[in-house]
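Page 42, continued from yesterday. The earlier attempt failed because a stray header line got pasted into the input along with the sequence. Redoing it now with the clean sequence only.
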Amino acid sequence: MLLRKLDRSEHGKTRELWEEVFTEDTGAFLDYYYYIKAKENDIYVVEEDGRICSMLHLNPYRLTIEGTESPSAYIIAVSTREPYRGRGYMGALLRTALNDMYEKKMPFTFLMPAAEAIYTPYDFRFIYDQDVGVPGLSEQTEGECDHTDAALWQSGEIADFFDRYFAGRWQVCTVRDSEYYQTMIMEQQSERGGVRLIKKNGSLCGVYAYAAEDVLEIREPLCRPGYEKEFFRSVSELADEVRRDGRCKAGTGGDPGGGAGSGVKIYACPENIDCISREKKPVIMARIICLPEFLKAMSVDEAREVDCSFAVIDPLIRQNSRVWRVSSGQGETGLHVRETEDSEGVVPIAELTELLFGRAEAEDIKDRENVVMTEHLAKELAKITKITRVFLNEVV
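This time it went through. C-alpha cells are written below.
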C-alpha cells in the first residue's frame, strides 16, 4: 500500500475511480469538476497493485467565522474500489488529510456524509441542518420583475447582493465573492441548470441556483422581503420552461397531485419562503482541526468575563491533546487561548465540537465517557457564544 498526495498534474488519474463509484454523476458534471475544482484542490490516494484504489479530495474554501476569514476544506469523494474495501484505507486517508490541514491552521473542516456512522468514529459531528421545502406553485399572474439566468460577468453583482442583504445573518458561511459565484454558475450549468436572477428596474432583489437533471431542484434561494411572490413566479416559469424543453423528468411544482411544478424541491429554503411542506435534514458534519485557531475565532459578550481551563482528548490530531486555558476580560469580545498545566476538566474533541456549535449543552455531555465537567467549567463555557447560525450548502 502506498498513500500519497497527488501532484496536481496527476489529478485526472482519479476520474476513473470517481466514475466507478459515483455512477450518478454525469460526464458534463465531471468535466466541470476536473477542469475547475481539481485545478486547485488536494487529492490523497492509496495505490495498490499499480493503480489508485482509494481516494479523498480536499476542496479549499474560505470561511467567515464570526466575521473573521479563515481557510478551510470541504472533504468529498471519499471512496474505495469494492475489492479493496475493509482494509482501513479510508481511515488512513482521513488521518493524513486531517493532520495536513492542522499544519495549515484550519479551524475546522466539513463534509456531507453518505451516512453519519461512517464519520462519527473520526470525531465528526453534525453542525448544519438544511430546510428542504416543497413549494405550492400555481398559475402566476403577471409580475413586476424580470427573471434571467446569470452570466459569468454578473458574479460580482451577486456577491455584492449577498454581502449587502444576507452575509450578516450567519456566524459561519463560505466567503461569497465574485469568484465563488462564477464557480457556482459553472457548476449549476454542468447540471443542466444555472443561477437565476430576479430583478426589478435593473436592481437585484432575488437570486437562486437550480439544477434540472432528474427533477428540478432549487438551491439556496435568497430573496429580499416583499419579493417572495416574485420568487414563486420565477420558479413556476422555470418549471414550465424545463418541462417544455425536456431537461428533466419532473419539471413542474409542489402540488402532490401534479400541476404547475410537481416534483420541485427547494434546498436551504429560508423561513420567508412559504411551502406546502417543509422538513429539516442534518446535512453537514464538521470536525475541529486546529483547536486554538477555532477558539480564537469564537466570540463572547463584552459584558462577560471568561476564565477556565480544560484538557482535550483528540486521538487523531495529537497537537490538540493539551490542557488549554481560555479567557476573556470585560470589554473584550474575543478569546485568548494558551496552553496551561492546571485543568478543571476533560472534554474529548467530538464533545467539544457539539458544545461549541450549540448542538449540546454541558449538561448533555457531562456524563459521557471520558468527560469530566466541573460546575465552574460548565458555567464558563456557557458564556462563549455558540455557533448555531451556519450556512454551508456547498455541493463539491
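Notes: The domain at 2-106 is CATH 3.40.630.30 (Aminopeptidase).
Reminder to self: strip header lines before submitting.
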